[in-house]
Amino acid sequence: MRSVPVTLVAAYAAMASQQPPSPGPPADLIVHNAVVHTMADAQPAAQGFAVRGTRFVAVGTSADVLRWRGPSTQVIDAGTQAIVPGLQDAHGHVLGLGASLQALDLRDTPTFAAVVEKVRARAAKMRDGDWVLGRGWDQNRWPVRDWPAPGPLDAAAPRNPVFLGRIDGHAALANRRALAAAAITRDTPDPAGGRLIRDASGSPTGVLIDAAQSLVARQIPQPSHDQLRRQLLLADQAMRRVGLTMVHDAGVAPDVIDVYREAIANDGFATRIYVMLTGLDTGDWFTRGPLIDPEQRLTVRAVKLVADGALGSRGAALNEDYADEPGNRGLLVTAPDRLYDVTRAAAEARFQTAIHAIGDRANHEVLGIFERVSREVPGARDLRLRDEHAQIVDARDIPSFAGLGVIASIQPTHCTSDMPWAPQRLGNTRVAEEAYPWRSLVAAGARLAHGSDFPVERPDPLLGFYAAITRQDTSEQPPGGWTPDQRLTRAEALHGMTLGAAYAAHAERDLGSIEPGKLADFVVLSRDIMQIAPRDVLSTTVVRTVVGGRTVYER
Ligand SMILES: [Zn+2]
Q1: Closest by alpha carbon to 370, among 395, 390, 400, 394?
Q2: CA of 189 to the centre of ligand 1 (A)
Q3: What's the DSSP call for residue 58?
Q4: For residue 210, is pLDDT > 70?
Q5: Mean pLDDT, rounded, for 522-539
Q6: Interior CA angle at 171 toward 167 and 177, to 5°?
Q7: Which of 161, 252, 382, 475 could form an S-S bond across to 177 if both were Cys, CB 3.0 to 4.6 Å?
Q8: How many angstroms separate the alpha carbon of residue 451 from the centre of ligand 1?
Q9: Nearest Cα to Cα of residue 204 among 220, 184, 218, 181
Q10: How far is Cα 274 from Cα 506, in angstroms, rounded to an integer?
Q11: How confident is the model at residue 527 (pLDDT cuts 50, 70, 90)?
Q12: What does the alpha-carbon distance between residue 25 and residue 230 come to, in Å, rounded to a whole number?
């Protein structure tokens, strides 16, 4: 192509758009009479498309695509419903979602007493000694916002160890049985990167912050291979239902890759998976090199590291003290030297690195590490290094994202979940200048990929779309949106969930838009999210989810 004059290429392209190409062999699937938002620059709007095998072969008007009909073509009249490319979540935890569907869901508990009641009911049905696991509590939603005293969990489950993760995964509640299983006493020191909340006498109460959680968590029996498989399949069903066709799994142990392979080969696991290996446990992957799947079913070419904690539990690493806890600047949970070593080793093995960074100090550290590795390892920049969360970012660091080609992997619903209490943690100045700075990142030329961090948030990507364009909660509060200058447009919001996420997974040639040659992933919606009032996005539902031309969910 290089020798063909550019003007001639443009002329061919113009001809092609005026005259649809003559159909080849008939399509397997045709969708027509739809409002298709293709996300393809060449043809942003269409009425339908034709699919052969796993890929789109034609996109255009209903008349264009119906020409691809053959005797055994499945034809779907979309009845003017809206269709978008398959939606992606650029940061989720698939086993976590599966486990959360099995564990106690504590997200909507209005008080600590409600948590205790759920534990009591579950423990009553379990054998003595079995672990009661739960997740999702958030003391910021309760009338008393202090850390709870887990004492009542002893009476609720006297014969079972109890371990209940906070909504953000950065704190947990353990009862006395669980503390005993971990041999935690008043003499147990705080581990590096973590803290045991203690009562006036110095005894641990059972509230475990950040790395302290693992003292107890590692006593929980490992799920069996079969339990892992069931968790993956539960998550797969949940992801299909909400229109997710690809998920970037942010932190996967090497042995889980085999479970994925098995679930895909034998159990019909349908969601495309882009694996970020747990960066501190990559097995022999750096020797073997990345697994790149041309059909994008299962790709392993990234590692995930964690720089700091979270804002809710005051573990995010800040440059200045927490506004509501003078003297505390949060925690760097992995030493910067270690982050650098793994990022560099990953780059040499041709793996992308994705680092969790929430506080402004963590983001600065991570960008510094990416700058150094990009300078030292040839081609490292092409690996599309990723900053996961990029939540609180010093304005002076914003230009580095575009400058270094670092992807800002953001979670719009984290913003709307955190906004009720983020000003207490940060004070109004840092909120105004640094918090969830999406518009500033876009304006500075950064590439964004959007996700939810499920099961921390719900996996429904339409909630992320709504949060991105409104910065309001689901009751449309606050009026006008929270720090509304940082909102995104609908096109930007959809881009982050499609092409932006695909780019972050090196998959933009195969995924992210509806155009001939790409894998046929799309979602039929009950309403057109690009047109309706923002609040109506919340009641929009997924009608059909299609992965590679195959319907994997239908309402
Ligand atoms: Zn995460």
Answers
A1: 400
A2: 27
A3: E
A4: yes
A5: 98
A6: 110
A7: 161
A8: 9
A9: 184
A10: 10
A11: very high
A12: 40
